[in-house]
Structure formats: C-alpha cells, structure tokens
Design a protein that fits this description.
alpha/beta; 8-stranded mixed beta sheet
C-alpha cells in the first residue's frame, strides 16, 4: 500500500527539497524572497496564494526580527499549515439509515477509480456499500464502474447507456433500502463540452437525492487530477456553480509534482480536501491529513 507520505515524494523532491536547500543556511536577502516566490509558483501553489504567503512571511520577518534563512523555513512551514484549516467531520460518517454521496468531476480526472477505492475503503470499515452508475453518457464509464465494483466487492446499480442518470440514482436508492445498504456512492457525468446539459444533469441528480432521502446528498465530492495543477481550479469553480460541492478528492497525487495546488484549493475555493489517491492499487487511498501533508512536503 502506497502511504500518504510516499505519495508526496515527487512534489517534495522536485520543489520543496529545493526550498529546503534555499532556506538551509545563511541570512535572508532580496534574492531569497525572489527565489522562494518562484519555487512556490513552480510547486503550483498559485500566483495569488504565493504572493499572500510571501507578504505574510515578510511581515513576520519584520515583526519578529527573523534574520536567518533557517528560521524563515520554519515560518514558511507554519504559514502553509495555516492555509489548511482542519475540516469539519465528514457528513457521510454520521450514523443514518442511508447516506448518499455524489461524486463529480471531468472525464479522465480519476473519478471512477476514486469511487472504486472509496467503496473498498468504506467496505473494509464495515459499511454496506452500493454504487450507482450515473454517468450514463459513456458506455465505457458504466463498464469501468462495474469492474471497480467487482474489485471492491460491492454491487453496482446501472441502467442502459444513454439512459436517464436521475432514474439510475432513484433505482439505486430503492435498491439500497430494499437490501439494507447504508452507503450509496453515485457516479455522475463528466463532459465539459456540453456545459449547460451537464449542469442540468448534475442539478437533476442532486434533486433526486434530496427528494428521496432526508438531507441528501450528504456529501458532493469533486475529483481533481493532481497532475492538472492550477487548471483544476477553473474546473472546480465550474462544478461549484452547478452543485453544492462539499469537498475535494485529489486523485493521482503520487504521480504529480504539483502537490502545492492543495494550498490554492484551500485558499481560493474554500473547500476541504477529504481524500487523496496515493497510488494505482485499490487500497491506495487515504483521508487527507493537513499535518501529515505538511510533514510530507518538508520531510
């Protein structure tokens, strides 16, 4: 199993290791600030978030009389951790008869894989999990989810390709109640090129969940591909407009050197990162831990 810390290796080696070298010895100079700013942007922290961090650090240096670069390193670690507030408890952890989770994201982001891993994760923790194949617009998406369902050992409720995704979700809710499942995870369409239709489909699925299960959907989690870096932010804003996104799943973190995007997500979207995909196997999945994330970057 690839651990959360291991999944940060590429980000740590490519950029944060160089930040450690930059702030390892000597005194702080104008060059130090310029290089630090460039490295944070390179790590995909984002220009806006980077400039805010640099400004906050410069104020601390002035206020606390920090001279040595090694002390600035510790201050940077503290300021980056401050950008990641500890999220409120996951709504899907609360005991109830049936919890409904919608998973949204663009095709290719790792959405279906994330659903399979999440199903396995919660099944291992004693939940009775069922999946709904709500991305009916790609026959391959239904097949892919069925494969992941088999791997995770959980049933998949599916309709015909091209069918009504709201009807699939409704059938899955009925099946869950009839068979005693307590966690329903629903896939959704992810086509960005027909934006209005996609928004309408997502809103409809949201409405079906709300109408048929009390307070549902209890979580709407957006899958972002860590490798897309800053491009993921525009995707996220688009989905936020369509449905009430409650948190982020960061897929493919192990294959990316752009782990710094976590700070931009937290700062600019105000959304908690809930889970991370840490490798290719079904068990390579972890709840996001802000302290462990910082430790992994600065190890």
């Amino acid at each position: 199993m690839t651990s959360f810390l291991d999944s940060l290796t590429r980000t740590r080696r490519s950029v944060f290791g160089r930040i450690a070298s930059l702030l390892g010895a000597g005194e702080i100079t104008d060059e130090t600030w310029d290089e630090l700013e460039a490295l944070l942007i390179q790590a995909d922290v984002g220009v806006e978030t980077t400039l805010e961090v640099i400004e906050t650090l410069q104020q601390r240096v002035s206020r606390e009389g920090i001279i040595r670069a090694s002390d600035l390193y510790e201050a940077l670690r503290e300021e980056l951790r401050a950008l990641l507030p500890s999220p409120p408890p996951l709504a899907l952890e609360r005991p109830r008869m049936l919890t409904v989770v919608l998973i949204v994201g663009v095709n290719g982001s790792g959405k279906t894989t994330s659903i399979g891993k999440m199903a396995y994760y919660y099944k291992q923790r004693g939940r009775k999990v069922v999946l709904a194949a709500g991305d009916t617009f790609r026959a391959a998406a239904i097949e892919q989810l069925q494969i992941w369902g088999e791997r995770a050992g959980v049933p998949v409720i599916a309709g015909q390709p091209g069918g009504d995704p709201g009807a699939v979700l409704y059938d899955a809710i009925r099946a869950s109640r009839a068979r005693g499942y307590d966690l329903l995870i629903a896939d959704t369409a992810g086509r960005l090129h027909t934006q209005y239709n996609l928004m309408a489909e997502l809103k409809k699925m949201h409405g079906v969940a709300r109408k048929n299960v009390h307070e549902a959907p209890h979580e709407t989690l957006l899958v972002l591909d860590a490798a897309t870096g800053q491009n993921a932010l525009s995707q996220a804003r688009y989905f936020q407009e369509a449905v009430e996104v409650t948190g982020i799943i960061l897929a493919k973190l192990d294959g990316s050197a752009k782990g710094g995007m976590v700070f931009a997500i937290a700062r600019q979207l105000g959304l908690p990162i809930r889970f991370v995909g840490t490798g290719e196997r079904i068990e390579d999945w972890a709840e996001f831990d802000p302290d462990l994330f910082i430790e992994g970057l600065f190890a």
